Amino acid sequence: MSRKSKLVILGGGESGVGTALLGQAKGYEVFVSDKGIIKEKYKNVLINNNIEWEDQQHTEAKILNANVVMKSPGIPDKVPMVKALLKKGIPVISEIEFASKYTNATIVAITGSNGKTTTSMLTHHVLKQELDVGLAGNIGDSFAKQVLDHDFDNYVLEISSFQLDGCFDFNPKIAIITNIVPDHLDRYNYEFENYIASKFRIVQNQTKDDYLIYDADDEVILEYLKNNSIQSTLLPFSLTKTIENGAYLDQDNIKITIDNNQIIMPTKNIALEGKHNIKNAMAASTVGHLLKIRKQTIRESLENFQGVEHRLENVLKINKVQYINDSKATNVNATYFALESMEAPTVWIVGGVDKGNNYEELFPFINEKVKAIICLGTDNEKLIASFGKMVDIIVETQFMSEAVKIAYKIAEAGDNVLLSPACASFDLFENYEDRGRQFKEAVRNL
């Protein structure tokens, strides 16, 4: 490659700095630009590797001089700088697109509105027992940096719709779509169809030699498959239907059939609880079966998997009240699964940045399981309008420590206190991890 090829990276976080290092190694002239402040640890990496960077500004002349731009998934397409790049015909791609060009690994790519982190971690847990496999995407060290430092034979990638929007040639051997429900609609002109199409970019380059594993109980996915021609070999999974090629639940067993080769996994000892986690287990087991992992290994992996931080995580039991951290539930559907799995009266902590939420599907659970609601956000009007008449106690706060203290006063022996916000965290917290950690700290300080 000629030295003149200029790679500009917008965003100096994990994916940006990983891409900068890989780009430099592949002979690009690299420039990193961040409108915000680049964290100290990332600045040091850029300085130590003599990579040019700037923060708290975008120098237009340098950026619009690029041959290719890698954009952090957090930057919307509608910002002026991205619009200017596209107008000039400069390709704007994601880290996933860039890094995938430099590896011949077998890639398992997982997307979906909910369940993708758990499914990615569970799939990685199954595969790592017998294969050389990395875990990247929305999770852990950047994909680009792993391709540079190690280049595993296989990767499990958790991929958001924002990352898929910047994918054009990317083609995973195995794609998984866990489910599709309205989410991030603010990024898609409030058009659900745009968001659905974005998720299905994961299979845009697949052929019949590649696989799409998907939830056959999800009407949105079924509708899209019915109306769009997809080349992939389809491997559905279902809790309610008998599936000939794919996975389904038969009483207490998961049955997985691929090319007439069937394996059976009992569900009774699966480490993760809840119906949605049986689906996650089906998806992960199907990948294991496809990649020739031994049945015994798959079974043991499902039984000893530790789960994901901030996703229905039991924190502590205090005075016979169980405190549960589900901060990762940043949309209504994720909270639906959380409330569905509650088997005791629940004090529910909810709220944050509403992304155009419709709370109606939660109403049956509120009537049946929720005894009090604590609204934790800067604007709780919609929550109070939606749930105010459904519970006897509904209170507002803007502090996690206060929310937990109020819950402590309300909850009685045998109850649950559940943080499952159904909203993004950016009004009061850095991100959902910060929100979850603050919840756990407040519980430990009771």
Automatic annotation (TrEMBL):
> Tell me, which GO biological process terms does this entry list?
cell division; cell wall organization; peptidoglycan biosynthetic process; regulation of cell shape
- Report the InterPro entries cross-referenced here: Mur-like_cat_sf, Mur_ligase_C, Mur_ligase_C_dom_sf, Mur_ligase_cen, MurD
- Which Gene Ontology molecular-function terms are recorded? ATP binding; UDP-N-acetylmuramoylalanine-D-glutamate ligase activity
Please tell me whether the keyword Nucleotide-binding is annotated for this protein. Answer: yes
GO CC term, one of those recorded: cytoplasm
Query: Catalyzes what?
Result: UDP-N-acetyl-alpha-D-muramoyl-L-alanine + D-glutamate + ATP = UDP-N-acetyl-alpha-D-muramoyl-L-alanyl-D-glutamate + ADP + phosphate + H(+)
Binding residues annotated for ATP, in chain numbering: G112, S113, N114, G115, K116, T117, T118
Q: Which pathway does UniProt place it in?
A: Cell wall biogenesis; peptidoglycan biosynthesis
Q: So what does this one do?
A: Cell wall formation. Catalyzes the addition of glutamate to the nucleotide precursor UDP-N-acetylmuramoyl-L-alanine (UMA).
Matches recorded under PANTHER family: UDP-N-ACETYLMURAMOYLALANINE--D-GLUTAMATE LIGASE
The protein, known as: UDP-N-acetylmuramoylalanine--D-glutamate ligase
